[in-house]
Amino acid sequence: MACFAVTPVAPMKDTLRITEIFFSLQGEARTAGLPTVFVRLTGCPLRCQYCDTAYAFSGGELLTLDAILEQVASYRPRYVCVTGGEPLAQPNCIPLLEKLCDAGYEVSLETSGALDVSAVDPRVSKVVDLKTPGSAEMGRNRYENIVHLRPHDQVKFVICSREDYDWSVSKVIQYGLAERVSEVLFSPSHGQVSGRQLAEWVIADNLPVRMQLQLHKILWNDEPGH
């Protein structure tokens, strides 16, 4: 009987499906403008109408957690952002976040807010979306996540219309978000609300929020890898 050499395969429990790992400037949130390594996980259960990362819905490459950490370390970063897709759709995102924190990085997690965040390492800064009516996925909001938000976390609203803006203001007030987290972020949906219009609404209401523009759209026209 012929014998064949078999290359050892890492157990599935030690792997994640990754769309890309790249080094760029953080385009939004509290660390906007800072050099950051992005780890983009593959897959997302949501289909927001304004999604700009549909290329991460499928495909990707299966990598071990150690291989991911090795690639991240090669850039010698201070900041690491785990994003998607929806990173928490893959259970091994949780141990990855822990390992990144253990390695000494300042770690953020960009999540849709549709999945449970309670198991996320408390050292991670969670950037949690609350999906507005205009997103087409408002029904997926998991409001139970709000009690798990810590002072260094962030909540983001993508504003598609005046209706979205008014709805978002009501949620900021209802859940006391400005007092619960470090940043409440209002972003204009690209091509639907202008940055100037959103800025005027925020100023008129003197809101305790940070209005933001996505730096990567301005600098690189939202090209993958930036």
Automatic annotation (TrEMBL):
UniProt KW keywords: 4Fe-4S, Iron, Iron-sulfur, Lyase, Magnesium, Metal-binding, Queuosine biosynthesis, S-adenosyl-L-methionine
Coiled-coil spans in chain: none
InterPro entries, A to Z: 7-CO-7-deazaguanine_synth-like, Aldolase_TIM, rSAM, rSAM_QueE_gams, rSAM_sf
Keyword flag Nuclease: no
Domain Radical SAM core positions: 31-222
Cofactor: Mg(2+); [4Fe-4S] cluster; S-adenosyl-L-methionine
Gene3D superfamilies noted in UniProt: Aldolase class I
Annotated residues for binding of [4Fe-4S] cluster: C44, C48, C51
EC number: 4.3.99.3
Annotated catalysed reactions: 6-carboxy-5,6,7,8-tetrahydropterin + H(+) = 7-carboxy-7-carbaguanine + NH4(+)
Cofactor, free-text remark: Binds 1 [4Fe-4S] cluster. The cluster is coordinated with 3 cysteines and an exchangeable S-adenosyl-L-methionine.
Molecular function via GO: 4 iron, 4 sulfur cluster binding; carbon-nitrogen lyase activity; magnesium ion binding; S-adenosyl-L-methionine binding
Record function comment: Catalyzes the complex heterocyclic radical-mediated conversion of 6-carboxy-5,6,7,8-tetrahydropterin (CPH4) to 7-carboxy-7-deazaguanine (CDG), a step common to the biosynthetic pathways of all 7-deazapurine-containing compounds.
Family: Belongs to the radical SAM superfamily. 7-carboxy-7-deazaguanine synthase family.
Protein name per the record: 7-carboxy-7-deazaguanine synthase
Species this protein is from: Phytopseudomonas argentinensis
Lineage: Bacteria, Pseudomonadati, Pseudomonadota, Gammaproteobacteria, Pseudomonadales
